[in-house]
Design a protein that fits this description.
By secondary structure, this protein is of the alpha+beta class. The protein contains two helices and six strands.
Amino acid sequence: VSTQSTWGMRLLCRRFHPSIMGVTKEVLLAGSGRKPKKGDKITVHCTGIIAATNKKFWSTKDPGQEAFSFNVGMGQVVRGWDEGFMDMSLGEQARLTMTPDYAYGKQGFPAWGIGPDATLIFEVEILKIGS
């Protein structure tokens, strides 16, 4: 089973069984480079949207913002990012949809207007892998 069909099945299952937790990926533009390995520093563009309201809460593409860098798979970001970005390749653009337990959970992220138990959507792109 390919990664895309596995992700698609997770998304389909979650639509019919909303208690299924995790992150799903929809490829918007295929990448042409390698996938990051756990611990790699990656630089990404991302736009975060609250699924229930379709409201953008943050984007690295907004004026005054910059691309975001972190070490993937190390718990420096929400779990949905760690798992989602590990399944992407350099240059790939995707939409990551994550259930609350893979995002900010019961506490939400009030500073960004993210309430408790919010499902989030991130439109993302890997710009660089490595330092």
